[in-house]
Amino acid sequence: MKLTLRVWRQQNAEAPGAMATYEVDGISQDMSFLEMLDTLNEELILSGDEPVAFDHDCREGICGACSLVINGDAHGPERTTTCQLHMRSFEDGDTIDVEPWRASAFPVVKDLVVDRSSFDRIIQAGGYISAPTGTAPDAHATPVPKPDADSAFEHAECIGCGACVAACPNGSAMLFTSAKVNHLNVLPQGAPERETRVLDMVATMDDEGFGGCTLTGECATACPKGIPLPSITAMNKEWLRANRKVRR
Amino acid sequence: MPLASSVVSMALATRADRRPSMTRTLWDSSVGKKTIMAVSGLIMLGYLAVHMLGNLKIFFGSDEFNHYAHWLRTLGEPFLHYEWALWIVRVVLVAAVVLHAVSAYQLSRRDLRARPTAYVHKKARSSYATRTMRYGGIILALFIVWHILDLTTGTVHTGGFQSGHPYQNVLDTFSTWYGNVIYIVAVLALGLHVQHGFWSAAQTLGVGSATRDRVLKTLANVLAVVLTAGFVSVPVAVMTGVVS
C-alpha cells in the first residue's frame, strides 16, 4: 500500500503546530496502524529528520496508551484502540489525517503525545476503595449479585485512554468518570465512599477543565471498550443521590 | 458509615471536611447546572403543553377563545385575587427561563474552553437537533421577547392592539408575512430543542436507562411533533382562512 499521511507536528507544548505531509510506501495490510507509523519513523530517522512522537505501550489493546485521532475519529474507523487498528481498514492511495487528542485538559506535549495526567487526578479524588490490610479475604466472603458484578465488570473495562474526551465536542470526561464511579459504586466494596467518590471525582473533573455533557453520544461511539452512554445517566443519578445524602 | 468515612478523611483528606452546601454544589458543578437546566426545561415544557392546548381554542370561535383568555385571569378566584394565578405562573416561568439561560450560557462557555483547538479533519457529528441546541435556544429567547411584546403588551403589535380581544390580536399578527415567518421558525426551533432537550433532561435527572431508552426517545419525538404541529396549526389556519 502507498499512503499519504498528514500528521500533526508540534515541537513542544508552547510551540505552534501544523499538519505535515508524508508519503509512505510498502505498507502491508496486516500491519497495525502503529507499525505503519514505525515504518514512517524509520524513514524519517534514516533521512535525518525528527521521528513523529506518539504514545504507545502494550500494543494489545489493554493499556490505553495509544491515542490518535485518525481521519477525525478517536482511534480511527474501527471500534478498537489505535494499536489494534490494522491497515486493511484503509485503501491503497488513501490520504490519512493523524491528530492528537484535542482538549484543554489534555495539553499537547509533543506531536501526537498529550498529557493525560488530569485523568490520574480524577482517579486520585475517589477512584479507590478502603480495604482492610492483612490476608486477602475469601473470594466468596462478600456476596455480589450477578447483575451488579456484570455492571462492575462492564465499567471496569475502561482503560482510561481518553478517546471519549477526544471525541466529545465539549472535551468532556463524563464517560470516563462515570465508568470509574459506576465500577466501584455498584459493588459492596465501594460502598463506604459511595457518596464522596462521585462528588469528589465530578468536582475534580470540573476543576481540570473538562467540558460538560450535552449527550451527543460521541464518547460512547468512540470508546474502544464499549462503555455505554447510559453510564453517564447512572452517574448523574449517583451524583444527585450523593448530594442529598452526604450532609445528613 | 460514619466510622468508615472519618477513617478515610483522616487517612486521605478527602473534600468531606469542607463540603459546601447542597445549593452551592448544585450551582458550581457541571452536573448540578445540567440538573437546573433539566428541571427548568421541564417546567417550561409543561407550560408549553398547556399553552398549546389553550391556543387550539381559537378553532372554536372568538367567543370561546376570548372567554378562555379572560378565565385565565379569574383563575383561582375567590381564593386568589384577579390575575394572581397568572402572575404566579409568570414569575415561575421567568425564573425558569433565567435559570435555564444562565446555566446554558455558563455551561457553553465551559464547553468551548474545554475544546479550544478544532480538529483539522472535520466530521459531521451528532444529530441536527443536538448540534443546534445553542442556536435554537437563542432563537427561542429572542422569540419569547417578541411574542410578549406582540401579544401580551402589544408594544410591537401591528393592526391596533386591543386588550381583552386576543382573538383579533392573533388574527392581526398572522395576517403579516413576518409574523408568520418569525412564529413558524421559532416553533420549528422549539420542536428540535424539545426533541433533544426532553431526552437529555431524563438522562441528567438519572431516570434514563438502556431499557427505557426507546420509550424516552419516542416520548421526546412525540412531544416535539405534537407541540410543533399544535402551535403551527394556528398561523396556518389564519393564513388559509380556516380561522378568520
From TrEMBL, chain A:
Keywords assigned by UniProt, alphabetized = Iron, Iron-sulfur, Metal-binding
Q: Output the superkingdom of the source species.
A: Bacteria
Q: Which cofactor does it need?
A: [3Fe-4S] cluster; [2Fe-2S] cluster
Tell me the ranges covered by the 4Fe-4S ferredoxin-type domain, including all copies: 149-179
- Which residue ranges does the record assign to the 2Fe-2S ferredoxin-type domain? 1-102
User: Which InterPro entries does this UniProt record tie to the protein?
Assistant: 2Fe-2S_ferredoxin-like_sf (IPR036010), 2Fe-2S_ferredoxin-type (IPR001041), 2Fe2S_fd_BS (IPR006058), 4Fe4S_Fe-S-bd (IPR017896), 4Fe4S_Fe_S_CS (IPR017900), Beta-grasp_dom_sf (IPR012675), Helical_ferredxn (IPR009051), SDH/FRD_Iron-Sulfur (IPR050573)
Regarding protein family, the annotation reads: Belongs to the succinate dehydrogenase/fumarate reductase iron-sulfur protein family.
What PANTHER family is this protein classified in?
Answer: SUCCINATE DEHYDROGENASE, SUCCINATE DEHYDROGENASE IRON-SULFUR PROTEIN
Q: What is this protein called?
A: Succinate dehydrogenase/fumarate reductase iron-sulfur subunit
